[in-house]
Specification:
Elements: H1 2-23, H2 48-57
């Protein structure tokens, strides 16, 4: 039972720490726009590296 209580409070602490980040409006984690994701770009605004890669492949 002690392990369950310790685990429960540990997980609760982790959730509270993540909630603090949301409350303070921290931006989401972003990936790179020219990264190793097989050439697909998920960025809304294309960065200079992605524009250069698309121009070179065209």
């Amino acid at each position: 039972m002690n392990i369950f209580i310790i685990t429960f409070f540990f997980m609760l602490t982790i959730v509270l720490i993540m909630a603090v980040g949301v409350i303070f409006g921290r931006q989401a984690i972003k990936g790179s726009c020219g990264g190793a994701n097989n050439g697909s770009c998920v960025c809304l605004k294309k960065c200079a590296k992605r524009k250069k890669l698309e121009a070179d492949s065209a």
